[in-house]
């Protein structure tokens, strides 16, 4: 065995020195690395960490810009902004949602159904999406929340501006509404403004179409704050730049009146300047209150709207499609005149006319006797149009219908329109692979069968018949727009149609109660009743609401110098008698607002108040019945827009070819016979029926 040498002090010293050297070298290397890193951070990364330090000390907050106002033709606000105290929640900053909501409910006196609505939104919201808790707060409630902020992380009280619609539901479909930006909106723009508490974007209607113009440029606020978030001092503020206002052709007073005058019915009113095409009123009722949508609609109100069989989410002016009924007869008569038919040519009406192997009845089963063109219009005789339409042919009638605006889509600032159907032989062959038949012409000539129109098209038709100009509906005010060109109609033909339409209201026609209570102003018009279901199901006048006939009325005034045209459609109103009193009062408002308002106020006493009051009463009834137990069916902001669009779906064209005769509905009861009018004097309706029985 090898003998081990003894360990001496020299050996120990040698080992210690070697180990000390290695350890010292390692320590020196680590120190050198630390010194190098420190130098790198202090010198090379100086700007980065200085900026980070500054960001910890200074908070930069975006200030949402004030949206541009939407104004009527006289500068009155249809959509405005108002100073607002509000409270929002940022979901990913809330530590204890239950405790936070309980505290806020007590401080802000939130109703149980409102608390549940907020909880629903918190469940659906992305972490960065602000959720509105309350808006339009008084100072005391706003201050109560502000002083409790240290114990309410994620709660953001702020002063700013909120969107406000003074007329409420009267402009719901006209203006649209705003709402908080969705996650999809943020993904498209990647704009931090979209996730700023209190900021809202256009979700529907004009608010959405003109978003870029109305939005404005955000401001910013820089403040010095402690690590706990307490603000030490303001370092500077950059003011926001408000969005640009939009001036519309709408008359705000007339718009509100038209919406209110529809009353308890479901329908629409369109009023146009028939010289320029300016849309003065475009009301669709019932509607929704855009203030509620902007604040975040709750489950009770959503249940109230979504279950309403009058479909308040549908813009009936642009998306409602209806058979126009007898309102097309002036258009058909004009096509006859332009095709060369003598207006004095007559036919005997015995209550019906055989076409092929079918009998097409007149609405008056007792018959009208001898009927020429004028009597055919003011007495709305179906047999007259049955007879001569077969001679003229559907191609010429359809061409005139399109020329006057039916079946046409207009350049309006809305996402979509339903332009309906003007049928002709080529259309039927393309649609159903079937040949056109005589009964198709007969049905179409009284506004039944395949023919479908929307109320805006009817207003354009009335405007073009009244003025003889190719007016196009427009909503943006342009006082320097060029004159509208003539359509090239014979003035003699137009005068004849005008006189016959004046007789509808002011003489022996079907709408004597539509006379205007205004001196020296005569209204010319045409009634129409559109069949909804066959007589074997209901008589169209009474019974279940959904089985009643639609009521139509088109008109213009003054009859001798047309300036304003109007179209009214009342869904399931039981016939034209539901439509022309509304048109009469709306047109009266233009010439004598005081008289019109007196009539409306009497009606609203019977109806249970104005639109806002009736909606409030209905909401309270729903809240009392359902309250906190209302189903959790409120869509989020993105799907809400989709649901609104779904609610605006229109009637589809018939899936199969129609082969039956359309049974014309009775027109309103005729007024007592009057003597034949003498030759026209200024501001009176001329006679168009000399020699007609």
How would you sum up this structure, described in words?
- This protein has 693 residues and is of the alpha+beta class.
- Among the domains are: 185 residues, Penicillin-binding protein 2a (Domain 2) (Alpha-Beta Complex); 267 residues, DD-peptidase/beta-lactamase superfamily (Beta-lactamase, 3-Layer(aba) Sandwich).
- Helices cover 38% and strands 16% of the residues.
- The protein contains 25 helices and 19 strands.
- The strands form 6 sheets. Strands 2, 3, 4, 5 and 10 form a 5-stranded mixed sheet that branches. A 5-stranded antiparallel sheet has the order 12-11-19-18-17, sandwiched between helices.
- Strand 11 and strand 12 form a beta hairpin.
- It is elongated, with a radius of gyration of 36 Å.
- The C terminus is likely disordered.
- It is a single-pass membrane protein.
- GO terms for molecular function: glycosyltransferase activity; penicillin binding; peptidoglycan L,D-transpeptidase activity; serine-type D-Ala-D-Ala carboxypeptidase activity.
- Keywords: Carboxypeptidase, Cell inner membrane, Cell membrane, Cell shape, Cell wall biogenesis/degradation, Glycosyltransferase, Hydrolase, Membrane, Peptidoglycan synthesis, Protease, Transferase, Transmembrane, Transmembrane helix.
């Amino acid at each position: 065995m090898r003998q081990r040498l003894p360990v001496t002090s020299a050996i120990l010293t040698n080992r210690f020195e070697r180990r000390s050297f290695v350890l010292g070298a390692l320590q020196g290397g680590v120190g050198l690395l630390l010194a190098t890193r420190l130098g790198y951070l202090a010198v090379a990364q100086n700007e980065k960490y200085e900026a980070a330090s500054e960001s910890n000390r200074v908070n930069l907050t975006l200030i949402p810009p004030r949206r541009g106002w939407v104004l009527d033709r006289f500068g009155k606000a249809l959509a405005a902004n108002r100073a607002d105290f509000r409270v929002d929640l940022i979901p990913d900053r809330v530590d204890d949602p239950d405790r936070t909501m309980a505290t806020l409910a007590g401080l802000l006196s939130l109703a149980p159904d409102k608390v549940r609505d907020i909880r629903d939104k918190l469940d659906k919201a992305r972490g960065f999406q602000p959720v509105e808790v309350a808006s339009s707060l008084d100072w005391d409630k706003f201050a109560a929340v502000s002083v409790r902020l240290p114990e309410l992380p994620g709660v953001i009280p702020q002063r700013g501006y909120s969107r406000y619609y003074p007329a409420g539901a009267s402009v719901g479909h006209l203006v649209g509404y705003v709402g908080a930006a969705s996650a999809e909106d943020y993904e498209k723009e990647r704009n931090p403004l979209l996730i700023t508490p209190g900021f809202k974007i256009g979700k529907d209607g004009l608010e959405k179409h003109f978003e870029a113009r109305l939005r404005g440029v955000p401001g910013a606020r820089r403040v010095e704050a402690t690590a706990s978030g307490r603000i030490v001092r303001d370092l500077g503020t950059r003011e926001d730049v408000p969005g640009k206002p939009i001036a519309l052709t709408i008359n705000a007073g007339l718009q509100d009146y038209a919406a209110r005058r529809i009353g308890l019915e479901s329908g629409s009113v369109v009023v146009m300047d028939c010289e320029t095409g300016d849309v003065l009123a475009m009301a669709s009722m019932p509607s929704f209150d855009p203030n509620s949508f902007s604040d975040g609609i709750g489950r009770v109100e959503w249940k109230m709207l979504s279950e309403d069989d009058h479909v308040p989410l549908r813009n009936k002016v642009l998306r409602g499609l209806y058979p126009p009924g007898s309102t097309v007869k002036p258009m058909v008569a004009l096509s006859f005149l332009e095709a060369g038919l003598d207006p004095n040519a007559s036919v005997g009406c015995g209550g019906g006319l055989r076409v092929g192997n079918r009998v097409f009845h007149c609405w008056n089963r007792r018959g009208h006797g001898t009927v020429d063109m004028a009597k055919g219009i003011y007495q709305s005789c179906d047999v007259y149009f049955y007879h001569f339409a077969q001679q003229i042919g559907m191609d010429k009638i359809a061409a005139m219908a399109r020329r006057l605006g039916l079946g046409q889509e207009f350049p309006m600032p809305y996402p979509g329109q339903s332009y309906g159907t003007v049928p002709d032989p080529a259309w039927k062959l393309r649609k159903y692979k079937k040949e056109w038949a005589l009964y198709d012409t007969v049905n179409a000539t009284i506004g039944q069968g395949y023919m479908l129109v929307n109320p805006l098209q009817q207003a354009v038709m009335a405007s073009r018949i009244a003025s003889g100009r190719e007016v196009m509906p427009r909503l943006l005010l342009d006082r320097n727009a060029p004159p509208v060109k003539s359509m090239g109609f014979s003035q003699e033909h137009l005068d004849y149609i005008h006189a016959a339409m004046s007789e509808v209201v002011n003489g022996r026609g079907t709408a004597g109660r539509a006379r205007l209570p205004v001196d020296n102003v005569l209204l010319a018009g045409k009634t129409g009743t559109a069949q909804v279901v066959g007589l074997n199901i209901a008589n169209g006048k009474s019974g279940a609401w959904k089985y009643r006939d639609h009521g139509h009325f088109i008109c213009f005034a003054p009859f001798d110098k047309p300036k304003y045209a109007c179209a009214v459609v009342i869904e399931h109103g039981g016939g034209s008698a539901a439509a022309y009193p509304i048109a009469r009062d709306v047109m009266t408002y233009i010439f004598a607002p005081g008289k019109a308002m007196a009539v409306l106020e009497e009606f609203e006493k019977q109806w249970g108040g104005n639109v806002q009051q009736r909606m409030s009463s209905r909401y309270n009834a729903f809240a009392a019945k359902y309250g906190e137990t209302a189903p959790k069916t409120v869509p989020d902001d993105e799907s809400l827009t989709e649901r609104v669009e779904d609610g605006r779906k229109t009637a589809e064209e018939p899936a199969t070819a129609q082969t039956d005769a359309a049974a014309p509905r009775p027109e309103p009861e005729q007024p007592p016979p009057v003597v034949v009018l003498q030759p026209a004097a200024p501001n009176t309706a001329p006679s168009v029926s000399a020699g007609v029985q």
